[in-house]
Design goal:
The chain has 611 residues and is of the alpha+beta class. It folds into three domains: 47-374, Alkaline Phosphatase, subunit A (3-Layer(aba) Sandwich); 405-482, Arylsulfatase, C-terminal domain, CATH 3.30.1120.10; 494-605, Galactose-binding domain-like (Jelly Rolls, Sandwich). 21% of the residues lie in helices and 24% in strands. The chain contains twelve helices and 30 strands. A hairpin with a 3-residue loop joins strand 17 and strand 18.
Amino acid sequence: MPPLTITFVRNRRTGLTCSIVVTAFFTALFVRADSMAFAAEPVQRPNIVLIMTDDQGYGDFGVTGNPVIRTPNIDAMAKRSATMTNFYVSPVCAPTRACLMTGRYNYRTRCIDTYIGRAMMSPDEVTAAEILGGNGYSTGIFGKWHLGDCYPMRPMDQGFQESLVHRGGGIGQPSDPPGAEGKYTDPILFRNGVAEQQRGYCTDVYYSNARAFIEKSAKRKQPFFVYLPDNCPHGPFDDVPREDLAAYKQLDLANSAFPQNRGHKLPRQANVDQRARIFAMITNVDRNIGRLFETLKSLGIVDNTLVIFMVDNGPNGRRYVAGYKGNKSHVHEGGIRSPFFVQWPAQLKAGHKSDVVSAHIDVLPTLLDASGIDVPAGLKLDGRSMLPMLKGEAVHLLDRHLVIQSHRGDQPVRYHNFMIRNSKWKLVHPSGFGRESFTGPPKFELYDLANDPYEEHDTAAAQPEVLRQLKTEYDRWFDDVGSTRPNNYAPPRIHVGTPHENPCVLTRQDWRHTSGRPWARDSSGHWLLTATAGNYNIRCRFSPSNVAGVARLRVNGKSTKLKLAANATTCEFTGVTVPAGSVRLDVELTHGEKTRGIHQADMEKMPLADG
Protein backbone atom coordinates (compact mmCIF):
# COMPACT_ATOMS: atom_id res chain seq x y z
CA MET A 1 0.00 0.00 0.00
CA PRO A 2 1.55 3.36 -1.00
CA PRO A 3 2.08 5.92 1.77
CA LEU A 4 -0.61 8.52 2.30
CA THR A 5 0.59 12.11 1.94
CA ILE A 6 -0.93 15.40 2.93
CA THR A 7 -0.73 16.51 -0.69
CA PHE A 8 -3.03 13.71 -1.85
CA VAL A 9 -5.42 14.23 1.05
CA ARG A 10 -5.61 17.95 0.42
CA ASN A 11 -6.41 17.47 -3.25
CA ARG A 12 -9.21 15.03 -2.53
CA ARG A 13 -10.75 17.30 0.05
CA THR A 14 -10.60 20.54 -1.90
CA GLY A 15 -11.53 18.95 -5.22
CA LEU A 16 -10.06 21.94 -7.05
CA THR A 17 -10.29 20.04 -10.34
CA CYS A 18 -13.38 18.09 -9.31
CA SER A 19 -15.62 20.23 -7.17
CA ILE A 20 -15.59 23.26 -9.43
CA VAL A 21 -16.38 21.20 -12.52
CA VAL A 22 -18.50 18.53 -10.95
CA THR A 23 -20.63 20.36 -8.45
CA ALA A 24 -20.12 23.88 -9.63
CA PHE A 25 -23.28 25.17 -8.03
CA PHE A 26 -23.53 23.51 -4.69
CA THR A 27 -20.31 21.96 -3.40
CA ALA A 28 -18.31 24.16 -1.07
CA LEU A 29 -14.56 24.16 -1.43
CA PHE A 30 -12.34 24.09 1.58
CA VAL A 31 -8.60 24.33 2.12
CA ARG A 32 -6.60 22.98 5.02
CA ALA A 33 -4.97 25.61 7.19
CA ASP A 34 -1.82 23.48 7.19
CA SER A 35 -1.72 23.17 3.41
CA MET A 36 2.03 23.78 3.36
CA ALA A 37 2.72 20.54 5.22
CA PHE A 38 4.78 18.13 3.16
CA ALA A 39 3.95 14.57 4.25
CA ALA A 40 2.37 12.41 6.90
CA GLU A 41 3.09 8.97 8.25
CA PRO A 42 1.49 6.10 6.33
CA VAL A 43 -1.95 5.30 7.70
CA GLN A 44 -3.51 1.85 7.83
CA ARG A 45 -6.80 1.83 5.98
CA PRO A 46 -9.71 1.62 8.40
CA ASN A 47 -12.37 -1.01 8.44
CA ILE A 48 -15.76 0.58 7.76
CA VAL A 49 -19.20 -0.26 9.17
CA LEU A 50 -22.11 1.86 7.94
CA ILE A 51 -25.30 1.37 9.97
CA MET A 52 -28.60 2.87 8.85
CA THR A 53 -32.01 2.13 10.30
CA ASP A 54 -35.31 2.49 8.45
CA ASP A 55 -37.94 5.06 9.56
CA GLN A 56 -36.23 5.69 12.90
CA GLY A 57 -36.54 9.41 13.53
CA TYR A 58 -34.17 11.91 15.09
CA GLY A 59 -35.95 11.65 18.45
CA ASP A 60 -35.89 7.86 18.80
CA PHE A 61 -32.78 7.80 21.01
CA GLY A 62 -31.99 8.49 24.61
CA VAL A 63 -29.11 10.67 23.49
CA THR A 64 -31.49 13.00 21.60
CA GLY A 65 -33.71 13.51 24.64
CA ASN A 66 -36.20 10.66 24.45
CA PRO A 67 -36.89 9.71 28.10
CA VAL A 68 -38.69 6.45 27.34
CA ILE A 69 -36.87 4.57 24.59
CA ARG A 70 -34.06 2.20 25.52
CA THR A 71 -31.03 2.67 23.27
CA PRO A 72 -28.06 2.28 25.63
CA ASN A 73 -25.61 1.01 23.01
CA ILE A 74 -26.33 3.72 20.44
CA ASP A 75 -26.24 6.34 23.22
CA ALA A 76 -22.84 5.03 24.32
CA MET A 77 -21.59 5.05 20.74
CA ALA A 78 -22.70 8.66 20.40
CA LYS A 79 -20.54 9.60 23.40
CA ARG A 80 -17.54 7.82 21.85
CA SER A 81 -18.11 9.46 18.48
CA ALA A 82 -17.50 12.65 16.58
CA THR A 83 -20.83 14.04 15.43
CA MET A 84 -22.20 16.14 12.59
CA THR A 85 -25.07 17.97 14.25
CA ASN A 86 -26.65 19.37 11.07
CA PHE A 87 -26.86 16.21 8.97
CA TYR A 88 -29.60 15.67 6.40
CA VAL A 89 -31.18 12.81 4.49
CA SER A 90 -34.05 12.58 2.02
CA PRO A 91 -37.58 12.41 3.46
CA VAL A 92 -38.07 8.86 2.12
CA CYS A 93 -35.83 5.86 1.90
CA ALA A 94 -34.76 4.88 -1.64
CA PRO A 95 -33.57 8.41 -2.53
CA THR A 96 -31.44 8.47 0.63
CA ARG A 97 -29.93 5.11 -0.29
CA ALA A 98 -29.03 6.25 -3.80
CA CYS A 99 -27.35 9.40 -2.44
CA LEU A 100 -25.54 7.39 0.20
CA MET A 101 -24.14 4.80 -2.19
CA THR A 102 -23.06 7.23 -4.92
CA GLY A 103 -22.19 10.57 -3.31
CA ARG A 104 -24.54 12.11 -5.87
CA TYR A 105 -27.99 13.61 -5.73
CA ASN A 106 -30.47 10.82 -6.38
CA TYR A 107 -32.03 12.74 -9.29
CA ARG A 108 -28.79 12.03 -11.14
CA THR A 109 -29.16 8.29 -10.56
CA ARG A 110 -32.70 7.69 -11.93
CA CYS A 111 -33.85 6.67 -8.44
CA ILE A 112 -36.58 9.23 -7.73
CA ASP A 113 -39.32 7.45 -5.77
CA THR A 114 -39.76 4.36 -3.57
CA TYR A 115 -41.76 1.97 -5.79
CA ILE A 116 -43.40 1.16 -9.17
CA GLY A 117 -40.10 1.15 -11.02
CA ARG A 118 -38.80 4.44 -9.69
CA ALA A 119 -36.70 3.08 -6.84
CA MET A 120 -34.35 1.36 -9.27
CA MET A 121 -30.94 3.00 -9.58
CA SER A 122 -29.12 3.15 -12.90
CA PRO A 123 -26.49 0.39 -13.07
CA ASP A 124 -24.13 2.96 -14.59
CA GLU A 125 -23.80 4.59 -11.18
CA VAL A 126 -20.57 3.88 -9.30
CA THR A 127 -21.14 2.82 -5.70
CA ALA A 128 -19.08 2.98 -2.54
CA ALA A 129 -18.89 -0.82 -2.64
CA GLU A 130 -17.44 -0.79 -6.16
CA ILE A 131 -14.78 1.76 -5.29
CA LEU A 132 -13.80 0.24 -1.95
CA GLY A 133 -13.93 -3.30 -3.32
CA GLY A 134 -11.71 -2.26 -6.20
CA ASN A 135 -9.17 -0.99 -3.68
CA GLY A 136 -8.75 -4.12 -1.60
CA TYR A 137 -11.78 -4.02 0.70
CA SER A 138 -14.08 -6.97 1.27
CA THR A 139 -17.62 -5.63 0.84
CA GLY A 140 -20.86 -6.91 2.33
CA ILE A 141 -24.45 -5.73 2.68
CA PHE A 142 -26.90 -7.16 5.20
CA GLY A 143 -30.49 -5.87 5.19
CA LYS A 144 -32.31 -3.49 2.87
CA TRP A 145 -30.96 -2.46 -0.54
CA HIS A 146 -34.05 -0.91 -2.18
CA LEU A 147 -32.29 0.18 -5.38
CA GLY A 148 -33.38 -2.65 -7.67
CA ASP A 149 -34.22 -6.32 -7.19
CA CYS A 150 -33.18 -7.66 -10.60
CA TYR A 151 -30.03 -7.77 -12.70
CA PRO A 152 -28.13 -5.49 -13.25
CA MET A 153 -29.24 -3.44 -10.23
CA ARG A 154 -28.88 -5.87 -7.33
CA PRO A 155 -26.24 -5.19 -4.67
CA MET A 156 -24.22 -8.13 -5.98
CA ASP A 157 -24.17 -6.37 -9.36
CA GLN A 158 -23.16 -3.07 -7.76
CA GLY A 159 -19.98 -4.01 -5.94
CA PHE A 160 -21.04 -6.08 -2.93
CA GLN A 161 -19.11 -9.33 -2.77
CA GLU A 162 -21.47 -10.71 -0.11
CA SER A 163 -25.13 -9.76 0.09
CA LEU A 164 -27.96 -10.95 2.30
CA VAL A 165 -31.00 -8.79 1.62
CA HIS A 166 -34.74 -8.74 1.29
CA ARG A 167 -36.35 -7.55 -1.93
CA GLY A 168 -38.21 -4.29 -2.49
CA GLY A 169 -38.62 -1.54 0.05
CA GLY A 170 -39.40 -3.79 2.99
CA ILE A 171 -40.58 -7.14 4.21
CA GLY A 172 -44.36 -7.32 3.82
CA GLN A 173 -44.45 -5.76 0.35
CA PRO A 174 -45.35 -7.22 -3.08
CA SER A 175 -41.76 -8.28 -3.67
CA ASP A 176 -41.86 -10.86 -0.85
CA PRO A 177 -41.11 -14.38 -2.09
CA PRO A 178 -44.03 -16.85 -1.96
CA GLY A 179 -44.50 -18.22 1.53
CA ALA A 180 -42.60 -15.42 3.24
CA GLU A 181 -45.12 -12.63 3.04
CA GLY A 182 -44.62 -10.19 5.92
CA LYS A 183 -42.35 -12.46 7.98
CA TYR A 184 -39.85 -10.55 10.11
CA THR A 185 -39.21 -13.75 12.05
CA ASP A 186 -37.71 -16.59 9.99
CA PRO A 187 -37.72 -14.54 6.77
CA ILE A 188 -36.69 -15.77 3.35
CA LEU A 189 -33.79 -13.54 2.30
CA PHE A 190 -31.55 -13.53 -0.76
CA ARG A 191 -27.94 -14.48 -0.31
CA ASN A 192 -26.00 -13.40 -3.38
CA GLY A 193 -29.21 -13.60 -5.39
CA VAL A 194 -30.42 -17.00 -4.14
CA ALA A 195 -33.44 -17.37 -1.84
CA GLU A 196 -32.45 -18.75 1.54
CA GLN A 197 -34.63 -19.59 4.54
CA GLN A 198 -33.43 -17.87 7.72
CA ARG A 199 -34.04 -18.60 11.37
CA GLY A 200 -34.63 -15.83 13.88
CA TYR A 201 -35.72 -12.21 13.85
CA CYS A 202 -34.61 -10.30 10.75
CA THR A 203 -32.39 -7.78 12.57
CA ASP A 204 -30.68 -10.59 14.47
CA VAL A 205 -30.09 -12.39 11.17
CA TYR A 206 -28.54 -9.34 9.49
CA TYR A 207 -26.19 -8.61 12.36
CA SER A 208 -25.12 -12.19 12.99
CA ASN A 209 -24.22 -12.56 9.32
CA ALA A 210 -22.43 -9.22 9.34
CA ARG A 211 -20.38 -10.28 12.37
CA ALA A 212 -19.43 -13.53 10.64
CA PHE A 213 -18.36 -11.54 7.57
CA ILE A 214 -16.26 -9.24 9.76
CA GLU A 215 -14.60 -12.21 11.44
CA LYS A 216 -13.71 -13.76 8.07
CA SER A 217 -12.26 -10.50 6.80
CA ALA A 218 -10.28 -9.94 10.00
CA LYS A 219 -8.88 -13.46 9.81
CA ARG A 220 -7.63 -12.66 6.29
CA LYS A 221 -6.30 -9.31 7.57
CA GLN A 222 -8.35 -7.63 4.87
CA PRO A 223 -10.07 -4.29 5.46
CA PHE A 224 -13.83 -4.54 5.17
CA PHE A 225 -16.79 -2.38 4.26
CA VAL A 226 -19.94 -3.62 5.96
CA TYR A 227 -23.22 -1.90 5.08
CA LEU A 228 -25.98 -2.64 7.61
CA PRO A 229 -29.18 -1.01 6.36
CA ASP A 230 -31.80 -2.64 8.59
CA ASN A 231 -35.46 -2.54 7.51
CA CYS A 232 -36.50 -1.95 11.14
CA PRO A 233 -38.44 -0.14 12.52
CA HIS A 234 -40.30 0.08 9.19
CA GLY A 235 -43.75 -1.53 9.23
CA PRO A 236 -45.61 -3.84 9.25
CA PHE A 237 -45.65 -3.95 13.04
CA ASP A 238 -47.35 -7.25 13.84
CA ASP A 239 -44.11 -9.25 14.11
CA VAL A 240 -41.77 -7.60 16.63
CA PRO A 241 -39.45 -8.89 19.39
CA ARG A 242 -41.84 -10.18 22.04
CA GLU A 243 -39.86 -9.51 25.21
CA ASP A 244 -39.09 -5.95 24.19
CA LEU A 245 -42.72 -5.40 23.24
CA ALA A 246 -43.89 -6.70 26.62
CA ALA A 247 -41.50 -4.30 28.38
CA TYR A 248 -42.75 -1.28 26.45
CA LYS A 249 -46.37 -2.28 27.01
CA GLN A 250 -45.78 -1.59 30.69
CA LEU A 251 -44.67 2.01 30.05
CA ASP A 252 -46.53 5.25 29.51
CA LEU A 253 -46.08 5.99 25.78
CA ALA A 254 -48.64 8.76 25.44
CA ASN A 255 -47.42 11.99 23.89
CA SER A 256 -47.58 13.63 27.31
CA ALA A 257 -44.73 11.36 28.45
CA PHE A 258 -42.29 13.10 26.08
CA PRO A 259 -40.71 16.57 26.43
CA GLN A 260 -42.89 19.36 25.02
CA ASN A 261 -40.91 22.35 26.28
CA ARG A 262 -39.40 23.42 22.97
CA GLY A 263 -40.33 23.54 19.32
CA HIS A 264 -43.48 21.90 18.01
CA LYS A 265 -45.78 20.09 20.41
CA LEU A 266 -47.12 16.63 19.70
CA PRO A 267 -50.86 16.09 19.18
CA ARG A 268 -52.90 14.83 22.09
CA GLN A 269 -53.64 11.40 20.69
CA ALA A 270 -51.09 8.70 19.94
CA ASN A 271 -51.23 5.10 18.78
CA VAL A 272 -49.44 3.74 21.83
CA ASP A 273 -49.66 0.11 20.72
CA GLN A 274 -47.88 0.87 17.45
CA ARG A 275 -45.38 3.02 19.29
CA ALA A 276 -44.57 0.15 21.64
CA ARG A 277 -43.95 -2.09 18.63
CA ILE A 278 -41.70 0.47 16.94
CA PHE A 279 -39.73 1.02 20.12
CA ALA A 280 -39.36 -2.75 20.57
CA MET A 281 -37.86 -3.01 17.09
CA ILE A 282 -35.48 -0.13 17.82
CA THR A 283 -34.31 -1.65 21.11
CA ASN A 284 -33.60 -4.91 19.28
CA VAL A 285 -31.48 -2.97 16.78
CA ASP A 286 -29.65 -1.34 19.67
CA ARG A 287 -28.92 -4.69 21.27
CA ASN A 288 -27.42 -5.93 18.03
CA ILE A 289 -25.24 -2.84 17.75
CA GLY A 290 -23.90 -3.71 21.19
CA ARG A 291 -23.06 -7.23 19.96
CA LEU A 292 -21.35 -5.75 16.92
CA PHE A 293 -19.03 -3.66 19.09
CA GLU A 294 -18.31 -6.70 21.23
CA THR A 295 -17.17 -8.54 18.10
CA LEU A 296 -14.93 -5.67 17.03
CA LYS A 297 -13.38 -5.59 20.51
CA SER A 298 -12.85 -9.34 20.65
CA LEU A 299 -11.04 -9.21 17.31
CA GLY A 300 -8.85 -6.35 18.51
CA ILE A 301 -9.87 -4.10 15.62
CA VAL A 302 -12.19 -1.58 17.24
CA ASP A 303 -9.63 1.26 17.26
CA ASN A 304 -9.18 1.29 13.50
CA THR A 305 -12.77 0.56 12.58
CA LEU A 306 -14.80 3.54 11.42
CA VAL A 307 -18.42 2.99 12.46
CA ILE A 308 -21.18 5.31 11.27
CA PHE A 309 -24.72 5.41 12.60
CA MET A 310 -27.51 7.29 10.80
CA VAL A 311 -31.17 6.95 9.80
CA ASP A 312 -32.71 7.08 6.32
CA ASN A 313 -35.50 9.62 6.96
CA GLY A 314 -37.81 10.95 9.65
CA PRO A 315 -40.01 8.77 11.87
CA ASN A 316 -42.84 6.69 10.43
CA GLY A 317 -45.59 8.69 12.12
CA ARG A 318 -45.77 11.77 14.29
CA ARG A 319 -43.92 11.09 17.54
CA TYR A 320 -41.20 12.70 19.61
CA VAL A 321 -38.63 14.24 17.30
CA ALA A 322 -36.86 16.59 19.73
CA GLY A 323 -39.18 19.50 18.98
CA TYR A 324 -38.67 19.56 15.23
CA LYS A 325 -41.55 19.92 12.80
CA GLY A 326 -42.73 17.01 10.64
CA ASN A 327 -41.94 13.36 10.14
CA LYS A 328 -41.23 10.90 7.31
CA SER A 329 -41.99 12.30 3.82
CA HIS A 330 -41.86 15.92 5.08
CA VAL A 331 -39.19 18.43 4.11
CA HIS A 332 -39.38 20.25 7.43
CA GLU A 333 -36.60 19.35 9.84
CA GLY A 334 -38.39 16.42 11.47
CA GLY A 335 -38.58 14.59 8.14
CA ILE A 336 -35.01 15.07 6.93
CA ARG A 337 -32.74 15.52 9.94
CA SER A 338 -30.67 12.49 10.98
CA PRO A 339 -28.22 11.84 13.79
CA PHE A 340 -24.75 11.20 12.41
CA PHE A 341 -22.34 9.53 14.82
CA VAL A 342 -18.87 8.47 13.67
CA GLN A 343 -16.73 6.34 15.96
CA TRP A 344 -13.10 5.88 14.91
CA PRO A 345 -10.89 5.86 18.02
CA ALA A 346 -7.64 5.88 16.02
CA GLN A 347 -8.49 9.17 14.35
CA LEU A 348 -11.51 10.94 15.88
CA LYS A 349 -11.91 12.55 19.28
CA ALA A 350 -14.87 11.33 21.30
CA GLY A 351 -17.40 14.07 21.91
CA HIS A 352 -16.26 16.40 19.14
CA LYS A 353 -19.16 18.06 17.33
CA SER A 354 -19.35 20.01 14.08
CA ASP A 355 -22.38 22.07 13.08
CA VAL A 356 -21.33 22.35 9.42
CA VAL A 357 -24.31 21.50 7.20
CA SER A 358 -23.80 18.02 5.73
CA ALA A 359 -25.82 15.24 4.15
CA HIS A 360 -26.03 11.73 2.75
CA ILE A 361 -24.17 12.80 -0.43
CA ASP A 362 -21.12 13.50 1.76
CA VAL A 363 -20.75 9.96 3.12
CA LEU A 364 -19.02 8.36 0.13
CA PRO A 365 -16.39 11.11 -0.23
CA THR A 366 -15.78 10.90 3.52
CA LEU A 367 -15.18 7.15 3.34
CA LEU A 368 -12.76 7.58 0.44
CA ASP A 369 -10.94 10.34 2.32
CA ALA A 370 -10.67 8.21 5.45
CA SER A 371 -9.35 5.22 3.52
CA GLY A 372 -6.88 7.20 1.39
CA ILE A 373 -8.59 6.39 -1.90
CA ASP A 374 -8.84 8.95 -4.67
CA VAL A 375 -12.17 9.62 -6.37
CA PRO A 376 -12.05 7.62 -9.62
CA ALA A 377 -11.15 9.70 -12.64
CA GLY A 378 -14.21 11.13 -14.36
CA LEU A 379 -16.58 10.37 -11.47
CA LYS A 380 -18.65 13.46 -10.70
CA LEU A 381 -19.62 13.75 -7.05
CA ASP A 382 -21.97 16.22 -5.41
CA GLY A 383 -20.78 15.52 -1.88
CA ARG A 384 -17.64 16.55 -0.05
CA SER A 385 -15.61 14.88 2.67
CA MET A 386 -16.72 15.53 6.23
CA LEU A 387 -13.48 14.13 7.65
CA PRO A 388 -11.77 17.48 8.37
CA MET A 389 -14.85 18.66 10.28
CA LEU A 390 -15.09 15.36 12.15
CA LYS A 391 -11.43 15.70 13.10
CA GLY A 392 -11.88 19.29 14.18
CA GLU A 393 -9.27 20.53 11.73
CA ALA A 394 -9.08 24.21 10.89
CA VAL A 395 -10.71 24.58 7.49
CA HIS A 396 -11.91 27.59 5.56
CA LEU A 397 -15.34 26.87 4.12
CA LEU A 398 -17.23 28.62 1.39
CA ASP A 399 -20.92 28.23 2.13
CA ARG A 400 -22.82 25.79 -0.05
CA HIS A 401 -26.45 25.23 -0.84
CA LEU A 402 -27.79 21.79 0.01
CA VAL A 403 -30.99 20.66 -1.70
CA ILE A 404 -33.36 17.92 -0.57
CA GLN A 405 -36.39 17.05 -2.71
CA SER A 406 -38.67 14.01 -2.91
CA HIS A 407 -42.23 13.37 -4.02
CA ARG A 408 -44.31 10.78 -5.83
CA GLY A 409 -44.33 10.63 -9.59
CA ASP A 410 -42.46 9.67 -12.71
CA GLN A 411 -40.09 12.63 -12.68
CA PRO A 412 -39.24 15.62 -10.50
CA VAL A 413 -41.49 18.68 -10.55
CA ARG A 414 -39.90 22.07 -10.02
CA TYR A 415 -40.55 23.43 -6.48
CA HIS A 416 -42.48 20.32 -5.42
CA ASN A 417 -41.75 19.21 -1.82
CA PHE A 418 -38.21 20.54 -1.58
CA MET A 419 -35.90 22.45 0.71
CA ILE A 420 -32.69 24.33 0.01
CA ARG A 421 -30.49 25.60 2.82
CA ASN A 422 -27.12 27.12 3.55
CA SER A 423 -25.49 27.70 6.91
CA LYS A 424 -28.20 30.16 7.97
CA TRP A 425 -31.29 30.17 5.76
CA LYS A 426 -33.70 27.46 4.66
CA LEU A 427 -36.24 27.88 1.86
CA VAL A 428 -38.91 25.19 1.83
CA HIS A 429 -42.00 24.35 -0.18
CA PRO A 430 -43.76 21.61 1.82
CA SER A 431 -46.23 20.62 -0.91
CA GLY A 432 -46.44 17.00 0.22
CA PHE A 433 -44.87 13.68 -0.79
CA GLY A 434 -47.97 11.65 -1.60
CA ARG A 435 -48.86 13.35 -4.86
CA GLU A 436 -47.28 13.73 -8.28
CA SER A 437 -47.57 17.52 -8.51
CA PHE A 438 -49.04 20.54 -6.77
CA THR A 439 -51.53 23.12 -7.97
CA GLY A 440 -51.22 26.88 -8.00
CA PRO A 441 -48.10 28.95 -7.32
CA PRO A 442 -45.65 27.57 -4.74
CA LYS A 443 -46.20 28.75 -1.18
CA PHE A 444 -42.63 29.18 -0.03
CA GLU A 445 -41.59 29.29 3.61
CA LEU A 446 -38.30 30.82 4.72
CA TYR A 447 -36.61 30.13 8.05
CA ASP A 448 -33.53 31.55 9.75
CA LEU A 449 -32.27 28.24 11.10
CA ALA A 450 -29.36 29.90 12.87
CA ASN A 451 -31.87 31.61 15.19
CA ASP A 452 -35.02 29.51 14.61
CA PRO A 453 -33.94 25.85 14.41
CA TYR A 454 -37.48 24.59 15.01
CA GLU A 455 -39.00 26.44 12.02
CA GLU A 456 -41.50 28.39 14.09
CA HIS A 457 -41.25 31.78 12.36
CA ASP A 458 -41.74 32.00 8.60
CA THR A 459 -39.82 35.07 7.35
CA ALA A 460 -40.66 34.75 3.64
CA ALA A 461 -42.57 38.05 3.57
CA ALA A 462 -39.92 39.91 5.54
CA GLN A 463 -36.90 38.63 3.59
CA PRO A 464 -37.82 38.77 -0.13
CA GLU A 465 -34.20 39.15 -1.28
CA VAL A 466 -33.04 36.07 0.63
CA LEU A 467 -35.98 34.14 -0.78
CA ARG A 468 -35.10 35.26 -4.30
CA GLN A 469 -31.46 34.25 -3.92
CA LEU A 470 -32.30 30.79 -2.58
CA LYS A 471 -34.92 30.27 -5.27
CA THR A 472 -32.33 31.15 -7.91
CA GLU A 473 -29.86 28.65 -6.46
CA TYR A 474 -32.58 26.00 -6.37
CA ASP A 475 -33.45 26.63 -10.03
CA ARG A 476 -29.80 26.22 -11.01
CA TRP A 477 -29.62 22.96 -9.06
CA PHE A 478 -32.86 21.62 -10.57
CA ASP A 479 -31.67 22.35 -14.11
CA ASP A 480 -28.25 20.86 -13.39
CA VAL A 481 -29.35 17.51 -11.93
CA GLY A 482 -31.94 17.11 -14.69
CA SER A 483 -29.29 17.43 -17.39
CA THR A 484 -27.06 14.65 -16.04
CA ARG A 485 -27.74 12.42 -19.06
CA PRO A 486 -30.06 12.39 -22.07
CA ASN A 487 -33.58 11.40 -21.06
CA ASN A 488 -32.37 11.67 -17.49
CA TYR A 489 -35.52 10.50 -15.73
CA ALA A 490 -36.31 7.44 -17.83
CA PRO A 491 -36.59 4.46 -15.47
CA PRO A 492 -33.87 1.79 -15.64
CA ARG A 493 -34.79 -1.47 -17.37
CA ILE A 494 -34.61 -4.97 -15.94
CA HIS A 495 -32.46 -7.35 -17.99
CA VAL A 496 -33.96 -10.79 -18.65
CA GLY A 497 -32.53 -13.93 -20.20
CA THR A 498 -28.96 -13.27 -19.06
CA PRO A 499 -26.73 -15.88 -17.42
CA HIS A 500 -26.52 -13.55 -14.40
CA GLU A 501 -30.18 -14.09 -13.44
CA ASN A 502 -32.41 -16.69 -15.03
CA PRO A 503 -35.24 -16.91 -14.13
CA CYS A 504 -35.88 -13.31 -13.24
CA VAL A 505 -38.67 -12.51 -10.78
CA LEU A 506 -40.83 -9.54 -11.81
CA THR A 507 -42.91 -7.93 -9.06
CA ARG A 508 -45.18 -4.96 -8.54
CA GLN A 509 -42.29 -3.21 -6.81
CA ASP A 510 -40.73 -2.54 -10.22
CA TRP A 511 -43.63 -2.51 -12.64
CA ARG A 512 -44.84 0.63 -14.34
CA HIS A 513 -48.23 1.15 -12.81
CA THR A 514 -51.10 2.01 -15.17
CA SER A 515 -54.41 1.82 -13.26
CA GLY A 516 -55.86 1.32 -9.77
CA ARG A 517 -53.87 1.87 -6.60
CA PRO A 518 -50.29 0.73 -7.39
CA TRP A 519 -50.13 -2.27 -5.05
CA ALA A 520 -53.84 -2.98 -4.68
CA ARG A 521 -55.23 -6.35 -5.71
CA ASP A 522 -57.02 -5.06 -8.80
CA SER A 523 -54.35 -2.67 -10.08
CA SER A 524 -52.62 -3.05 -13.44
CA GLY A 525 -49.13 -2.40 -14.72
CA HIS A 526 -46.38 -3.55 -17.06
CA TRP A 527 -42.64 -4.15 -16.97
CA LEU A 528 -39.97 -2.45 -19.07
CA LEU A 529 -37.24 -4.94 -19.93
CA THR A 530 -34.06 -5.38 -21.91
CA ALA A 531 -34.25 -8.92 -23.25
CA THR A 532 -31.94 -11.51 -24.69
CA ALA A 533 -33.77 -13.04 -27.68
CA GLY A 534 -35.22 -16.49 -27.14
CA ASN A 535 -38.16 -18.58 -25.98
CA TYR A 536 -39.33 -17.98 -22.42
CA ASN A 537 -41.58 -19.67 -19.93
CA ILE A 538 -43.45 -17.10 -17.84
CA ARG A 539 -45.04 -18.39 -14.63
CA CYS A 540 -47.56 -15.99 -13.09
CA ARG A 541 -48.86 -15.71 -9.52
CA PHE A 542 -51.96 -13.81 -8.46
CA SER A 543 -54.75 -13.73 -5.91
CA PRO A 544 -57.75 -15.95 -6.72
CA SER A 545 -61.13 -14.99 -8.12
CA ASN A 546 -64.25 -17.11 -7.72
CA VAL A 547 -65.09 -16.35 -11.35
CA ALA A 548 -63.38 -18.11 -14.26
CA GLY A 549 -61.45 -15.83 -16.58
CA VAL A 550 -58.69 -15.29 -19.09
CA ALA A 551 -55.01 -14.45 -18.68
CA ARG A 552 -53.56 -12.38 -21.51
CA LEU A 553 -49.83 -11.84 -22.03
CA ARG A 554 -48.47 -9.22 -24.43
CA VAL A 555 -44.87 -8.83 -25.57
CA ASN A 556 -44.50 -5.49 -27.32
CA GLY A 557 -48.21 -5.70 -28.07
CA LYS A 558 -48.20 -9.26 -29.45
CA SER A 559 -50.82 -11.15 -27.48
CA THR A 560 -51.16 -14.71 -26.11
CA LYS A 561 -53.98 -15.88 -23.84
CA LEU A 562 -54.85 -18.74 -21.49
CA LYS A 563 -58.12 -19.80 -19.86
CA LEU A 564 -58.30 -19.54 -16.07
CA ALA A 565 -60.42 -21.76 -13.86
CA ALA A 566 -62.28 -20.21 -10.94
CA ASN A 567 -60.06 -19.80 -7.86
CA ALA A 568 -56.85 -20.28 -9.88
CA THR A 569 -53.76 -18.66 -8.34
CA THR A 570 -51.16 -19.46 -11.01
CA CYS A 571 -50.80 -19.89 -14.75
CA GLU A 572 -47.88 -20.46 -17.11
CA PHE A 573 -47.20 -19.23 -20.61
CA THR A 574 -44.70 -21.55 -22.31
CA GLY A 575 -42.48 -21.05 -25.33
CA VAL A 576 -43.13 -17.30 -25.54
CA THR A 577 -40.95 -15.73 -28.21
CA VAL A 578 -39.23 -12.60 -26.95
CA PRO A 579 -37.11 -10.41 -29.25
CA ALA A 580 -33.78 -8.90 -28.34
CA GLY A 581 -33.64 -5.38 -26.98
CA SER A 582 -36.32 -3.18 -25.44
CA VAL A 583 -39.45 -5.07 -24.45
CA ARG A 584 -42.70 -4.10 -22.76
CA LEU A 585 -44.32 -7.04 -20.97
CA ASP A 586 -47.99 -6.91 -19.93
CA VAL A 587 -49.92 -9.65 -18.15
CA GLU A 588 -53.61 -9.03 -17.38
CA LEU A 589 -56.36 -11.15 -15.90
CA THR A 590 -59.97 -10.68 -16.98
CA HIS A 591 -62.92 -12.00 -14.97
CA GLY A 592 -66.18 -10.89 -16.56
CA GLU A 593 -65.87 -7.14 -16.94
CA LYS A 594 -63.07 -6.75 -14.39
CA THR A 595 -59.41 -6.60 -15.50
CA ARG A 596 -56.44 -6.61 -13.17
CA GLY A 597 -52.72 -7.28 -13.11
CA ILE A 598 -50.86 -10.24 -11.68
CA HIS A 599 -48.84 -10.26 -8.45
CA GLN A 600 -45.50 -11.65 -9.68
CA ALA A 601 -44.00 -13.43 -12.68
CA ASP A 602 -40.99 -15.73 -13.01
CA MET A 603 -39.55 -15.10 -16.49
CA GLU A 604 -37.16 -17.84 -17.58
CA LYS A 605 -35.29 -18.09 -20.86
CA MET A 606 -35.24 -21.67 -22.04
CA PRO A 607 -32.09 -23.33 -23.40
CA LEU A 608 -31.78 -23.84 -27.12
CA ALA A 609 -32.94 -27.25 -28.33
CA ASP A 610 -30.19 -29.68 -29.33
CA GLY A 611 -29.58 -30.22 -33.02
